[in-house]
Design goal:
The protein is mainly alpha-helical and 465 residues long. The chain is built from 19 helices and 8 strands.
């Protein structure tokens, strides 16, 4: 044996483990078995697992199932894990077989070996603290892992809701700033009827406001957990007192309003709550994509495009075309949206493919769902800070399009009638004059009334007076 290694054994035999490693034989086998993606387990999932382990240790300690010294060492080791000091010891691939068992064992072994150190022992001396018999006491991967996913998701949902709120505020700021700028509305990419640029941004703000509310409410779908249910939700091998106490400890540790599922068999085998939450994230992604796409079109140019608005310039746009600046923030947000939609498909596939009392594909669900949350948190922030806040309007160009478009005549239809409106539109197209010029030349509407009808107030009023 290499002096820098230690020997550990499991049901399959023995393996050498690096002496300074906090992980053990179960983790090493998983690392060797699943060299799949190179993706790391999400930091919030690590923290979620550590929180569950601490709650379980506290419950077992209080009920006398763990000796005081060992229980306190496990709790202290968990603190080192959640602080990030030991995250590098979580080495199994994010994609793995076994419904999360490899992740759970990686956590168990790291906590056990750090607890052994705290007690003055050498790593691998599981007579002091055993990763299964003590760190995993009265637990199963099947109740620990989905509970930890929910804790991680709730944590990220809180961050996401705050960033969506800030994006909503930025859009509402632009709604106010642009409230007096007349522009041409478009349907099917063709001129429709006049509106204000402020009204355009008000619709964006409203869509994001709905997303904010959905995200805020969807936490409720994740609060029901199956911790204490052990292997299949029946609580087999766990004392009844522990099952009732551990959820209380978990509430204290997380600060979340978690509740033990009334039917833990259901909560262990059925993952539809994740489908619902992922669907809400997809809805938000759809809105982000639509808004970012509109902004790209409105800012197109600078000569051959619409050029109704200017997006902040954040970087040079081309390695061959001098002076070119691209709408890269909008494009990045669009790519995040596409990834979130793809992840929603993964979540859906995972949840429909559970069999009987367990879903074996939870690791890829965890990665997809938590990745979506993290991406959306960042996307909302850069969209707000690097794009929305810095948008400016080209008021004269917006007005030019509105005044020269045949669509303007629609706003005047109640006052001059359809046939006369058609005549004005045709003359404007034939002569190159604006619709407004033709109406004024023909004196079809008194100037004072015309000014009101073309005002931002009239353009955004509900109906006409």
């Amino acid at each position: 044996m290499n002096r820098k290694n230690r020997i550990e054994h499991d049901l399959l035999g023995e393996k050498e483990i690096p002496q300074d490693a906090y992980f053990g034989i179960h983790t090493l086998r998983a690392k060797e078995n699943f060299p799949l993606s190179g993706l790391k387990i999400h930091p919030e999932l690590i923290n979620g697992l550590a929180l569950v382990k601490k709650a379980c240790a506290r419950a077992n300690l209080e009920l006398g199932f763990l000796p005081s010294e060992i229980g306190q060492a496990i709790i202290a080791a968990r603190e080192d894990l959640i602080s990030g000091k030991l995250h590098k010891e979580i080495v199994v691939d994010a994609l793995q077989g076994g419904a999360g068992t490899s992740s759970n064992m990686n956590i168990n072994e790291v906590i056990a070996n750090r607890a052994i150190e705290i007690l003055g022992g050498e790593k691998g001396n599981y007579k002091l603290v055993h990763p299964i018999n003590q760190v995993n006491l009265h637990q199963s991967t099947n109740d620990v892992y989905p509970t930890a996913i929910k804790i991680a998701a709730i944590t990220l949902l809180h961050h996401l809701e705050k960033n969506i709120a800030r994006l909503q505020g930025a859009l509402q700021g632009k709604e106010k700033e642009f409230r007096d700028i007349i522009k041409m509305g478009r349907t099917e990419l063709q001129d429709a009827v006049p509106m204000t640029l402020g009204a355009e941004f008000s619709a964006y703000a409203e869509a994001i406001a709905r997303d904010r509310w959905r995200v805020f409410k969807c936490e409720e779908r994740l609060r029901v957990v199956n911790i204490g249910g052990t292997a299949i939700g029946t609580g087999l091998t766990a004392p009844r007192k522990y099952i009732f106490l551990v959820i209380e400890k978990l509430r204290e540790e997380t600060g979340f309003g978690l509740a033990r599922a009334e039917n833990m068999v259901d909560c262990t085998q059925n993952m539809d709550a994740f489908v619902e939450v992922s669907g809400i994230l997809k809805a938000h992604a759809v809105n982000l994509f639509k808004i970012s796409s509109d902004l790209r079109l409105m800012s197109s140019g600078p000569i051959a495009g619409l050029r109704e608005i200017n997006l902040p310039e954040v970087q040079a746009g081309s390695s061959i075309m001098p002076g070119k600046v691209n709408p890269v923030i909008c494009e990045a947000v669009g790519q995040v949206a596409i990834k979130v939609m793809a992840n929603d498909f993964i979540v859906t596939q995972v949840c429909q493919n559970g069999q009987f009392e367990l879903n074996p594909f939870l690791p890829i669900l965890a990665h997809a769902l938590l990745e979506s949350l993290s991406l959306l948190i960042q996307a909302n922030e850069i969209f707000r800070a690097k794009c929305i806040q810095g948008i400016s309007a080209n008021k004269d160009i917006c007005a030019y399009y509105a005044h020269h478009s045949p669509g303007l005549i629609t706003a005047l239809l109640p006052y001059i009638g359809y046939e006369q409106a058609t005549s004005v539109a045709r003359e404007a197209q034939k002569t190159g004059k604006s619709v407004l010029e033709v109406i004024r030349e023909k004196k079809l509407i008194p100037e004072e009334q015309l000014e009101y009808l073309l005002s931002p107030e009239a353009m955004t009023a509900l109906g006409h007076r």
